[in-house]
Amino acid sequence: MAFTQQRRGGRPPQGNSRPSGGRSFGGGGGGRRGGGNRGPAKKYIHPSKFINKAVAKADEIVYESKHKFADFPFGAQLHHNISHKGYVTPSAIQDQAIPHIIEGRDVIGLANTGTGKTAAFLLPIIERQSGISLRPSVLIVAPTRELAQQIDEQFREFSKGLNLYSALIVGGVNVDRQIRDLKRRPHFIIGTPGRLKDLMQRRILRLDTMTTLVLDEADRMLDMGFLPDIRQIVDAMPRERQTLFFSATITPDIQALVNTFLNNPETVSVRTSETSEHVEQDIIEVRDKSQKIDILTEMLRGEAYDKVLVFGETKFGVQRLSDHLDNSGIPSAAIHGNKNQSQRQRALKQFKDERVKVLVATDVAARGLDIPNVSHVINFDTPQTYEDYVHRIGRTGRGGASGRAHTFIDAR
Question: Is 260 in the same domain as 279?
Answer without folding.
Answer: no
